Automatic annotation (TrEMBL):
GO molecular function list: metallopeptidase activity
Protein name: Putative zinc metalloprotease
EC numbers on record: 3.4.24.-
GO biological process: proteolysis
Coiled coil: none
Length: 395
């Protein structure tokens, strides 16, 4: 009886061996399972990986053996974007555990890609997060949020390394300077345009300033990808029609400032196409006053502040019937000429000054380098001093 049992068992083992050999003399059990997968073809990726190999690794994501699943996961992530189609395919038909592992691969591939990349793994994750299939959509939404969180953390470090400044600074809107968290791209920027791809991941910052050699169309195009950007200042440089085009494509601009940037009538017409909602500041641009009057007619409701660019360097309380200095900017003309906090400015040349608004109106007619005589009261005594106006460049 025992001999018969062992003979039958030997027969079954031999039959099993023959069946495996019939498939392929050197194929593993996991490879046999891929016979049920759709035909993948023999095309080869840039990394030298065939579609058949990709299909094998995707199949191994559902293997019972941990080491095989782990190895397949690593290989698919290393292959990168070339593995995306195969991973998306298995997510349409795989079991929940395989889908979860494929989603992990897509997330890692998305994080390894360039920050400005919108297609590939990142694009597929966003597409699936909006799909109707509840289980896949929930997993994809979690992956999308994971990518966003990591990218936001990486963005600040990457931009700082590239010389982009992110931090608190004074920002002028409608002639009032207030502290704000800003992004500033200036002469300290490395010049590597790809580094600005990280700007699209900078959240909760509404203010940005571009200065000097960084005033370029490709820089502005990356800048406007900041998701919460609402206020832009362009300072000390050259502007062309091409520079303004990305700003015209924005859906919302609360405030826009051009400071010490030459503007002509053609550029003024292009600026009028930018969707500015609240204020437009033109300081030291040389734009003709009559052109600004035309812009005010064509853009009703928009506050347009025109100043020639001269800067005294004092601040006083607004809405008062006096122009008493409460702050003097260190290193600027007023401080260098001896004007102090507590002095009351009563005249600029032949113009009587009764308020801070009067002082602003008088100075706004002057360009940097203009000489003016400032009359002021100190402890009831009238004094005067002649000085040359400077530029507003305190940042």
């Amino acid at each position: 009886m025992n001999r018969l049992f062992f003979a039958d068992l030997s027969h079954r083992l031999l039959l099993g061996s023959l069946l495996l050999a019939a498939v392929s003399p050197s194929v593993s059990l996991a490879q046999v399972e891929t016979a049920n997968l759709p035909a993948a073809g023999n095309r080869v990726t840039e990394d030298g990986v065939s579609e058949t190999q990709l299909a094998q690794w995707v199949a191994d994501l559902g293997d019972d053996q941990f080491h095989r699943r782990k190895a397949a996961t690593r290989k698919l992530i290393d292959v990168g974007s070339a593995a995306v189609p195969a991973l998306v395919n298995v997510m349409e038909r795989g079991d929940l555990e395989t889908i979860d592992r494929a989603m992990h691969c897509l997330t890692e591939i998305a994080l390894a890609g360039p920050p400005e990349k919108e297609d590939g793994a990142w694009g597929e994750l966003k597409r699936m997060s909006e799909a109707n299939t509840a289980s896949r959509a929930a997993l994809a939404k979690a992956s999308v949020e994971e990518v966003r969180t990591v990218r936001e953390s990486q963005a600040g470090e990457a931009l700082t390394r590239a010389g982009v400044r992110i931090g608190i600074d004074d920002f002028m809107v409608r002639a009032v300077s207030t502290p704000a968290v800003i992004v500033q791209i200036d002469e300290n920027w490395s010049g590597e345009i790809d580094s600005l791809g990280w700007l699209r991941w900078v959240k909760n910052i509404e203010f940005a300033r571009v200065k000097g050699p960084a005033i370029r169309p490709d820089v502005i195009a990356r800048l406007v990808e900041m998701p919460d950007l609402k206020t832009v200042a362009i300072v000390d440089g050259d502007v062309t029609v091409a520079t303004l085009r990305p700003l015209q494509a924005m859906t919302r601009v609360d405030a826009l400032e051009f400071r010490y940037v030459h503007l002509d009538n053609e550029l003024a017409d292009e600026i009028a196409k930018i969707p500015v909602r609240i204020s437009l500041s033109l300081m030291g641009t040389g734009i003709p006053a009559e052109k600004v009057d035309e812009m005010r007619i064509n853009l009703p409701g928009l506050h347009i502040d025109l100043r020639q660019g001269g800067f005294l360097g004092v601040s006083c309380l607004t809405g008062m019937n006096t122009c008493r200095v409460n702050e003097v900017t260190i290193g600027k003309p007023a401080q260098l000429a001896g004007i102090e906090s507590g002095d009351e400015i009563v005249g600029i040349d032949d113009v009587k000054i009764d308020s801070f608004e009067d002082l602003q109106a008088a100075i706004n007619q002057k360009v940097p380098g203009d000489q003016v005589e400032v009359q002021y009261l100190r402890n009831g005594k009238r004094k005067s001093v002649k000085l040359s106006l400077g530029k507003y460049d305190i940042e």
